[in-house]
Predict the structure.
Amino acid sequence: MTEHQTQELPPVAAFHYQALCGLCLAVIFLAQLNQGLLIPNVFCILIGALCLFSRLTLGPVFLLVMVGVAQWAYYFSLGRGSAQRARALEITDIILCAAVVGFVAAHFRLQSIWQSVLPSDPRRRAGPPRRQFPWLRKQPPVVAQKRPQGQITPFELAGLVLSLSAWAVAAQILWALLPKQVEIIGLPPRVLQMIVVAWGLAVGFLIVRGVFSLWRFRQADSATAQLILQDTLWKETRGEQRRIQRWLAWWKWEKRERGQPS
Amino acid sequence: MLTPRGWWFFVALLALLAAALATATATFVLVCLAALSWFLGQWAMFAVRLRRAHGRLEIHREIWDERAPLETLWARLPAEVRLTLESPVAFPFVWMVDRVPPLAQRVEGENATAGPVSAEQPLEMGYRIECPAPGLLRFEGVKLQVADLQGFFSKTLFVRDVRVVRVLPALADARGQIPAVKRHNLIPLPGGHPHRRAGTGHELLDVRDYLPGDPPKLIAWKASARRDRLMTKELESEVPVRCTMFVDLSHSVRIGAVGRNALARIVEITASVLQANAAVRDLTGVCLFDEAQVKAYLRPGRGSRHLYEITNLLTDAACLLPRTDDVPLGRLLPTAYGIVQDLYPDWLDPGVNYMPLWLPFWAAQPAYTMPRRIVPAKHWWSRGLRWLRRRLDDTPFGLRRGRASRFSVYYHRLYKARKQVAAVLAVLYDLGPGGLALLLEDDETCRRYVQRFLAEHQTPCPLPFYDDRGEYLFGSSGKIDVLADALLQAVYRGRDNELFVLLADFLEAGPHLEKLLRAVRVALARHHQVLVVCPWPPSVPMPQRKKVVGTLRVPSKSEGALRVPAEGDGTRSVPTTLQDWLGRASAARLHHAFTKVRQAFARLGVPVVLSAEHEAVGMVLHRLQRLRTLERGLR
């Protein structure tokens, strides 16, 4: 994006993310109202709005919990048999998923602007000393690295909004891959689903990690490659090397004690 | 890569997904799966961006004054550092920090900035620095912290771009004035007499009565006719005044922060004398020495090339850091580990530099490989005890420190730092396949390489000044011998009218000065002049010259009571803390040592001045002036 293009676009600020959060909350309310939820739905929206205006760090998690509570109440009222119905590509679910992901993403981006985008570094402190938990001694507060509001671009906002439906569809695909009415060795379907999700995540992590490790090894420069080789050799022959070097160190001191040149 | 925020959200998401699956609420499972796929997608995109950017991030650094980019800097003149980070891969948020070299001080602007980076939009930064002393500015590179927009993932990178810039001594004349625009005229003005002694030159110095034996061609006929007696013209000597500066580079003068220690002051004095001599076309030489040898010797000369040659030598020497074999490894390793964390963060990754958690417990360092003080047995009967103690140390029962320390958290942390630093140093200094184990087991070798690593990165570390017997660790007597030999060599090579300035620390030399005093006697016997400039720690008050005001008495070994001088302004303050008392006692000991050095040289008629005094440069120039105006017949 060139500077010329940036000047032509309208300025974007944190307010736009707040507006997106509000819009997502409204969509969540309507989607759940369409399911017939009212009281839990209202609580859900109130909690979401409270988290938004109070800038609560755990706001997105609270909203997820409230949506979960509302949905559990809905399925509890319908009865257990209806809970395992196939819900492939229901438009209400897709809209609800997109709205929840939109709220979560926008709220976390707001936290990067309001609080910090990088993990706090306890070595970087500035300002007058003050007591913080556990109140033992006064220390200057840790400097929080916030994202400046002026760096928000319209493209990131548009990209987020456009990608929401993709994540909702991805959830539908994953849901379709989960076994629904299958029983293996007497395990109920819900346990089987949990096992499949756990194994899917674990195997997926291993594969992705392996791919990235190979990629990293291919990109390594000569010094890094030397470090990897040296570390592998040390891991394999650690005991032998340790014995030899300790004997040499002892021998050096022994020679020095006897007055011989080392 | 995952930040605490990312970890918490990921764990919460997994817990909610598990709860949703357990309660079989399909819509909520879908919601959790959507959030999970979004989170994993962000993770994958961040990791791919990082991998694609690996090795392709570029730093462009320029140092500017008001007009143009610079290759070398001048001390005490500000300069602007401009940085540009270019990345072919777009990152939504990058925090960039430039490491300001220890020699430089940031006077304006911030050395950090944050913002997005892409191929079309580089990240730029600028700040102004000023160097208080000459030396070498070593810019290591730029530290980057990359994060996504949500703050879930972050990665610390370091773009290495080592650049060493020389900071030359400030252009100053004898009075310490810095010329702004006009340059020094290196050619003396017509009619000036730079060498006011009679000789065989061409400039007229004086007219005197004719003496039998004077060459007839020098008879001043007009003056003879006017006075009615024969007069002879006396011409000026063209033998120039020479000055050789002996600069001490031993570890004792390097103590302190870079650019703010005694060595920096010595270099400043040498450079000032050099520039003042160049202005009057006097010849200046320099001899750099340390405890072991003469590092460099440049015979007295003049000309711009000679001037720059000496200036470069002094500049390179000004940033040396002290080193000692008696510093515990536990003091060095945390500093070195911090440097490695900052400059080589990718080399601490567990994939390339693995550290098993259980290793410090399993393979703690035994006592028999640790450095031990060698105390010779004084009596015949103590030899047996020493032998027995050594044998016990070498047995498995002798793992005293190792056994106790393997349960300590501090030892585990130190062991981890040592292993990872050793791996990095073994690669940096090409120690071969066994280098890692060598540095991990041999304390002495590890200490040597760690100190070299710290010195190369201009990082001072806390050093002990005294050993456990109370002896000063930096008072090496070797440099006295080296200096004495160098002085004799200079006398041997020297000509008439030479001034030898010894800029060396003799305060802790003790009784080893005799050889140097003999060399000084030789120089004086050859009609040379000698001046001693003694480096003085900047933080210690200088001794009173005329009267001692406000003294306090503390016990002393030699005198029973040692005079502790008051502060520099003459006010008397009673020390209240142990630190104050130690500071006062240390100052008193230095004053006592200085008095002894001054007395030793005063017996030979050699003045001793302190480097911290403002008139140190003036004193050297005054001695040169005396050489220039020596009366005829005195020699």
Q: What stands out?
A: The first strand of chain A starts at residue 130 and ends at 131. Chain A touches chain B through 87 residues (CB under 8 Å). Residues 1-121+142-177 of chain A form one domain. Residues 24 and 99 of chain A are 5 Å apart (CA to CA).
